[in-house]
């Protein structure tokens, strides 16, 4: 039930804080991560030498965010691949490969077929899934459920933040098994994770009306670009996907570093570009590079909408709009930066009079290949 909300999507965006806290619930104990579903399965994860994440659409972007954390925390190489590409290229798989599938519905045919394929070839399989008892978790060796609650709107929102949360929990679990992080380091990341729901709630409270107003002004926009670097790159892709599927306008996400290798040719006067700005407190170098991308595009007339942490003044000279997110560690910023993009896509589609719950040509669960 929509319960007073104008759409399921509006309700589900408002539930993003709960999606994270419910996914954490029962899995954190005194600064340690304990995933009851994975009890007794240590052998499955301790000795893997490679992880391949497979998924489609938004779930694949969650996987791309997760890659940065998983590699950093576990020191195991992680590749992320679209499920429908993975299966048709004769991938190298063996008992030391862990294939992690991510799916909200647990029924996406492309992902299911890729999981079966990986299992038949001897790989180990873990499913990250939002739907209890769905086919993909049943076909996998292990499952970590996201507890985002039922997601009805075709566009995935709260499931996305829950998927990143589950991947992070899994990463910390494996880091403990392999000894790649100390208990103190794990506890620091747990503190960050626990703070995420409150920070998302703050964005909804402080920025949502402004973003919706702003989306309203942009209702006639024909094309929007999104730039990000590091963990901000998959968030840029997610922002673009949401705008395509909901508002039916041309939208593209780029790695900011790729600009001068081609996409900067698209920049002309008035072109709206969202830029996800990493915190200057993380890697100062990353921050400087993104600021210089902003300078390059604004010099060519782009209309820059920056998503930046509170207090970051470096964005002010060139940005036409700044959407603020609370301070967080570098790997936790994507869980915050995506929220304004979900609100924006929903706001723009609403301003155009479109049905945000049921966009044209799309199904919630893609059960054909
Ligand atoms: O149920 P799944 O997570 O497997 O679905 C994967 C994609 O079909 C899904 O994320 C799709 O891209 C969404 N409509 C994006 O908002």
TrEMBL record:
Any one cellular-component term (Gene Ontology): cytosol
EC number(s) per entry: 2.6.1.16
Entry annotated with the keyword Nucleotide-binding: no
Entry keyword Cytoplasm: yes
Localization terms from the record: Cytoplasm
Catalysed reactions, semicolon-separated: D-fructose 6-phosphate + L-glutamine = D-glucosamine 6-phosphate + L-glutamate
Quaternary structure, from the entry: Homodimer.
Role of this protein: Catalyzes the first step in hexosamine metabolism, converting fructose-6P into glucosamine-6P using glutamine as a nitrogen source.
Name of the protein this chain belongs to: Glutamine--fructose-6-phosphate aminotransferase [isomerizing]
